[in-house]
């Protein structure tokens, strides 16, 4: 008897999990962590709320899964040192404009300790590694990454969460022109003694 190999069919649970995560991302982005409910997310996913609890345990577990986010930072080792600030601000603006998940995470991080930890880990792990890769002094890498994070998160908060009119009105190119030199200094400037 020979066994035939058929391509594995996706399990129904995989489709259910994907539907829950899509609905959760949309709901958290639109309403924030506090106002989004398991019932509303389940209704959006067209499933029973007990299924959300089965797969994710509770609202915080669901949020943690839904807020998985990759900054998709470019390889900074291939970038001329004088262009790092511009490249990073362009990259961050593209990420913020193209994905509501990060906005939901930022909105929620201000009131929820779990979301704040997720945001810290996201920027600490991914951004610090990217800054370290282009050859900063290891003694200043974490500080440089922290300063870049403070600038980009501040822009995101004022532009996408609070929607401060002057920040929203700025075209991306204008924002790049204002912010790139600051990021450049954070990344490559020498700390004063």
UniProtKB/TrEMBL annotation:
Database matches in InterPro entries: Homeodomain-like_sf, HTH-type_TetR-like_transc_reg, HTH_TetR, Tet_transcr_reg_TetR-rel_C_sf, TetR_C_16
Record-annotated HTH tetR-type domain positions: 14-74
Keyword Transcription regulation: no
Alphabetic keyword roster: DNA-binding
DNA-binding in keyword set: yes
Protein's name according to its UniProt entry: TetR family transcriptional regulator
Alphabetical list of PROSITE patterns matching this protein: HTH_TETR_2
Domain of life: Bacteria
Pfam families: TetR_C_16, TetR_N
Residue ranges: DNA binding: 37-56
């Amino acid at each position: 008897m020979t066994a035939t190999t058929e391509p594995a069919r996706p399990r129904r649970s995989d489709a259910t999990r994907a539907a829950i995560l899509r609905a959760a991302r949309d709901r958290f982005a639109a309403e924030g962590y506090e106002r989004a409910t398991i019932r509303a997310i389940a209704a959006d996913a067209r499933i029973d709320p007990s299924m959300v609890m089965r797969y994710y345990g509770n609202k915080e577990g669901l949020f943690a899964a839904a807020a998985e986010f990759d900054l998709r930072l470019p390889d900074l080792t291939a970038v001329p040192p004088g262009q790092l600030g511009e490249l990073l601000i362009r990259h961050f603006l593209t990420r913020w404009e193209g994905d509501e998940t990060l906005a939901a995470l930022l909105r929620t991080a201000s009131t929820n300790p779990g979301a704040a930890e997720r945001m810290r880990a996201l920027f600490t792990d991914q951004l610090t590694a990217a800054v370290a890769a282009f050859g900063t002094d290891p003694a200043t890498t974490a500080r440089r990454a922290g300063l870049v994070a403070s600038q980009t998160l501040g822009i995101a908060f004022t532009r996408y969460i609070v929607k401060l009119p002057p920040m929203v009105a700025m075209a991306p190119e204008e924002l790049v022109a204002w912010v790139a030199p600051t990021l450049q200094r954070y990344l490559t400037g020498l700390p004063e003694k």
